[in-house]
Amino acid sequence: MKLNSYEKKWILYDVGNSAYIMLATTILPLVFNALAEAGGISPSDYLAYWGYASSLVTLAVAFIGPIFGAIADRKDMKKKIFTLYVAIGIIGTFAFSIPLGWFYFLAVYVISKIGFTASLVFYDSMLTDVTTPDRMDKVSSHGFAWGYLGSCIPFIASLLILIPRERLGLSFQMASTIVFFINGIWWLLCTIPLYKTYRQIYYTEKKETSGTFKELMETFKEIKQSKKILLYLISYFFYIDGVYTIINMAVAYGSSLGLDSAGLLLALLVTQLVAFPCALLFSRLSDRFETGLLIKVCILAYFGITVFAIGLNTLFKFWILAVLVGMFQGSIQALSRSYFGKIIPPDKSAKYFGVYDIFGKGAAFLGTILVSLISQFTGNQSLGIAVLPVMFLIGLVLFRKSDKESVL
């Protein structure tokens, strides 16, 4: 499929922001682990604190998304709010370089990730403006695919500085600072083309600011009246829980088990490289098979992945996990995004995607908090992972019911 200019620039933002999520899921947990150890924090508590921070982010964005989404659906507002949260995320990325201890580092992580995650609410809603419903599966899949591949560039650059830092004559602090700036600048540069050219096509008429909460309640009422959308969002809440929990806590989990940090980072690089062709493969499969069927396949695959993760205790098994996750991670996210984009009103996309984010990234609150609590109270990190397969089973059952309903 040949992409037009608007679609390419929309996809380029995925390339930029993916550098942050790669940083946040690989290098940041390791830096925090080092700071936590220096502060006398135990491995189980370290994993728990990281999970609590991730949960706080999802709660904040669950509140921000639909409220600002209602405002963003007004004419020319989407790009302004999008830009605000991108700025928060990028500035937060630079702020990691200030050496003020583990608590400060965790606070910056929360703020920067709120900026990153909130920006995706409005970025996702732009999909209805940059392409047509019949192209959404492919454009969404290309976004994730090129995001995974593109994020490898700043990540490899980061590894080339961080791993041989002693031979380069760099302290851990200085090497980390360079890494943070590489990723922040990459994110910024990949955002500029979308910022310059994006135009909001679908919007609702401007209303008074006091009506924002009223609009939000109206959105929830509309969703409640559509059985397909409601069931889909609830199913999405459950099955995406495992996906985001694995993304947020994979390296933290492996690090808490005492696995080699360099091996963990390289394994996650493999995840990105595997995810690129697999996301494009599922994009092609969407021409032959219904999107709903492909999502069911991905949910079943993730059920098996999380069962496998329960017994993870060696770096070799972590690498197997990394490859399996790469095969389905981008696909389930891309297909879920495009599936939702096709069943909602396009002129209300920001509001609906704001709610989507509550059920989506907000779902990671449940997964990370359960993993954190069980790990901390039992002292056994593997037991915390055991809750995730249940989430996928519930999500699959509800998705099957949703997929049978017709769009209003």
Low-confidence stretches: none
Number of helices: 17
Would you identify the CATH architecture? Up-down Bundle
Total domains, how many? 1
How do the SSEs run, as a string of H and E?
A: HHHHHHHHHHHHHHHHH
Count the strands? 0
- Assembly annotation: single chain
Query: Could you name the CATH class?
Result: Mainly Alpha
CATH superfamily: MFS general substrate transporter like domains
Percent helix range: over 70%
Instruction: Please state the structural category.
Output: mainly alpha
Rounded to the nearest angstrom, the distance between the terminal CA atoms is: 29 Å
Strand content: under 5%
Q: What name does the CATH topology carry?
A: Growth Hormone, Chain: A
Give the radius of gyration: 20 Å
User: Can you summarize the main beta sheet?
Assistant: none
**Overall form:** globular
Rounded average pLDDT: 84
